[in-house]
Amino acid sequence: MKKVAKGIGKFFLWLLVTIIGIAAILAVVISTIVNGPSAEAKSLFVKTMLETGNMKWAVGVFMSDDEISEILSQNSMGTFDKEPDTGLIEIPVDDPTIDPNEITIEKIQGDNFTATMMIVNDPSRVFVGTTYPWTKYGQELDKIVNNYGATAGINGGLYYSAANEGGRPYGPVVSQGEIQNMSNLGMAGLVLIGMTYDNKLDIVDIAGCSDSQIRQIIADHGIRDAVTFQDEEVDSNNHFVKLIINGEKRVLNGMGSGANPRTAIGQTKDGRMLLLVTTGRGANGQLGATASDLIEIMASYGAVNAANLDGGSSTSMYYNGQWLQNSVTFYYANTSWRLPDAVLVR
User: Where are the domains of the chain?
Assistant: First the structure.
């Protein structure tokens, strides 16, 4: 019994020493970045960390509030008040050159990320699947896809992700014509991202709107499916939504954003849907994609309108029974985080 106890004691001592060693190495690395000669590396570190859910504190440990504020003011997303003119999207009817059943998967190699682009020819196939009625826990992406008998899916909107519970969305959620969530919890900068009944991507600012006003917006815009994300740059969030509106790219101040795993959605002039995910946060040794990366990728694929969705550890893509992107969190590396909603393909 004493030998067992001694062995357990040695193990925990080894574990403690290992944790302290890793923490010390991380501290040296971060200090080198923050105090090093590269202003770009310092800015990228700040923007990247502030976009994470659990590592925001690392910035405040090594930098003052004034330093952080200065970097944020010099590296931000430009104001983008435009909303999509869905009349610019012309979905062809009975075009023999377009196979409505076709889904194309393409890999994109960036400087600090690998991306997967899913092109869905028929936009009517894209909708929002959920775990409604909401419970404490959401479901992994593959389960949501299979529950709806869908063929593909990516993670969707803003949600309560602490402890990987994932059962509660933030902001309005619409699934196949049914408004399943409405409360915006007083959150700033909310943007509705969804599909209209005529199968066009719509991206609508709902910041400061009451529930009744949001319901009216959903009705007026003819939105059949939608999730919500946030466009706000403060220390606690650093989120952004609009990437391209009516063919116009969002203007960035400095670096715009940090580098992280990303999920985005777009639509081309002929109605094809673009579903994009990228790697990051050390997965495959890659840092991630920036807002600029997303904008340039979507533009290169002909997106007339495009929006950023929830990303980071939530970023995931599932297609035809296989994971094309898992969560970058190492303990969920073979699946995704639990989610309350997802953008699916019938």
Answer: 2-74, 78-345
Per the structure block, which two tokens stand in for 262? 């990303």
Q: Using one digit for the tens of pLDDT, what is the confidence trace for 206-261?
A: 999 999 999 999 999 999 999 999 998 665 567 999 999 999 999 998 878 899 99
CB 227 within 8 A of CB 153: no
Q: CA-to-CA distance for 56 and 50, rounded, in angstroms?
A: 5
CA dist 72 and 42 (Å) reads 11
3-state secondary structure of 191: strand
Report phi then psi at 5, rounded to 5. -60, -40
> Using an 8 Å Cβ cutoff, are 266 and 86 in contact?
no
Tell me how far apart the 2 most distant CA atoms of the chain are, in Å.
79
201: its two tokens: 């991507």
Among 25-34, 106-115, 151-160, 234-243, which is the least confidently predicted range? Answer: 25-34
Q: Which residue has the tokens 């009975």?
A: 94
Distance of CA 212 to the CA centre of its chain: 27
Q: Which two tokens stand for residue 324?
A: 């094309």
